[in-house]
Structures are given as structure tokens and as C-alpha cells.
Amino acid sequence: MRWFWVDRFTEYVAGSHATGMKGVSLSDELVHDHWDIYPTMPNTLIAEGMAQTAGLLVSELYQFQELVVLAKFTKLTFSGLARPGDALRYEARIGRTVDAGAQCTVTGTVLGSGGRPDRPQAEAEIFFARVGSDAPESIAGTKPARLFDPAMLVRWLHTTGVFTVGVRADGERMKPQDYGLPVKV
Questions:
Q1: Which UniProt keywords apply (predicted)?
Q2: Is the full-model pTM beyond 0.85?
């Protein structure tokens, strides 16, 4: 993945839920490309941030060993604009899981500042498909590869704070070696 739309995680409970944060900055080039005289974060990128927050949870269900891809948004609504200076909070929760993948519910909230209250920004239900090692071969005759190089994944998980705030279902801290990932970044 080339672009990351989650700056950090403030909560991460493996197999259950996660909270990710994204600061909208005037220095982000893409906020100027949406409407040139009224910079906003495009709703498509907010949806991507929601998907990255939930997709990481789903990928962890499979020990980061299988390719997990966004299959579809079964619901997606927006309630306003996110502008430079706003902080977005993405709250993802795993719902139903089946052999083919998992459904997640995600909300996006613009955090209030200067006495303003928090306000809803977006709601989504997202289904992630599991394309694992037991997946059928493609037309080209090859099985799908991992989405991330393991070392790159560990760097991203450290950078966003997953290993700082993340806990497994038993309450123990998440560690790269729990998933067969390299320890050093």
C-alpha cells in the first residue's frame, strides 16, 4: 500500500475493535485538489482511512499471513466535510466473520475543538474478502501474494502505534513475533 490514511492508533484489541486517528492538514496536497478555493479532505480518502483501520483488524484475524482485500462497502454515508485542522477518529469493530472474509462496522467522527462538540462524519459497513493460501490459482496460474512485505508491515504497525496500544484477546500486548513477523524494523 502506498498511501496511509491513518496516522496512529489509540486503541487496538485483536479480533474485536480498533480506533485510528487522522489529522487533516493544510500541507496535505490532496485537500487542495478537491476544491481549489475550499480545501477539504475528499470523502473517498475518509472512506479509505476507515477501510485501512478495519482492514488491519481483519488481516490480524488471519495472523497477517493472508491477503485480505476490500470487497465492498455494503453501506457508506457521509455527514459533512473534514477540513484542515480537523482530527478524524475512525472506530472499527469486527462483526460477522465467514470463511470468505469478515464484515466490519466503522464510524468516522470529526473531533471537536475550541469548545465545539464532536460531530459524526461517516458511517460504513465494509466486507473484506480473504484471499488466503488455500485460495484457487488465478488465471495466470499463480496464487496471490501478501499485500505487505513483512518488514514493511512491522514498520507501519510500529509507526502507527499498534504495538504500543494493541492487545490480544487474552489481554497480553501484541508483538511482531506473535505473527511470525520480523522483530526489528
A1: Lyase
A2: yes
- What is the DSSP secondary-structure string of 108-135? EEEPP-TTPPPEEEEEEEEEEEEE-TTS
Q: Say if CB 7 and CB 22 are below 8 A apart.
A: yes
Residue 159 lies in a domain: yes
32 in a structural domain: yes
Asked about 34 being catalytic, the answer comes back as: yes
Residue 72 lies in a domain: yes
Q: How far is CA 49 from CA 22, 46, 157, 178, 179, in A?
A: 8, 5, 15, 25, 23
| Residue 115 is assigned to a structural domain of this protein | yes
Chain length of the chain: 185
Q: What is the pLDDT of residues 116-131, one digit of tens each?
A: 899 999 999 999 998 8
Report d(CA 17, CA 53) in Å as an integer: 9
